[in-house]
Amino acid sequence: ASRAMAQPAPRKPAAAPSEMPDCAAMGALPASWAGQVYAIDGDTLAGVGLKPRIRLWGVQAPELRDGAKAESVAGMRARVALEDLLEQSNRKVKCRASKFDRDCRIVAQCSLDDARAGDIGGALIAAGMAYGFDLDEALPWESRAGQRYATAEAEARKQRRGLWKDWLGER
Predict the structure, then answer these.
(1) β-strand partners of 35
(2) Residue-wise pLDDT tens digits, 8-49
(3) Residue 130 CA to chain centroid, in angstroms?
(4) Quick one: which of 34, 61, 69, 89 has its CA closest to 164?
(5) pTM
(6) Rounded Cα gap, residues 155 and 149, in angstroms
(7) Helix (H, G, I), strand (E, B) or coil at 33
(8) How far apart are CA 163 and CA 130, in angstroms?
């Protein structure tokens, strides 16, 4: 693989409000949701009994499948890392929703529903299995979440944790 292919995907700009799809079929955006989940990929959850999927706020993980629909090693590693995190709380999470995204997924900051209540997105970034995404979008309940994620990403990158060795071209 070439060095360019190993780098994280470029960050896509947020869609303008006029480009956002009508997510009315998904119902009203819940302020919060708690329940059992499983990982669809490295940054998307499916909640048991919840129709829309949950896209973790502030996180971009490698795509599970490439353009030819073949599974990517980086994408599989990111999904496994998310699954391992979820196992710590028997797949029980608590999420606070911020909006629907362009695919009508609930964009939410989620934490494990256990004694430690660890922030899932922050843990993925700190482990080097994802990088920060749309971090300038402040959350009403945690104004410094974007800065926290950016700091975790910088440290993971510096320490070459997780996928950063591949993304930075060191195999």
Answers:
(1) 93
(2) 554 444 444 445 568 888 888 999 999 999 999 999 999 999
(3) 7
(4) 61
(5) 0.85
(6) 10
(7) strand
(8) 8
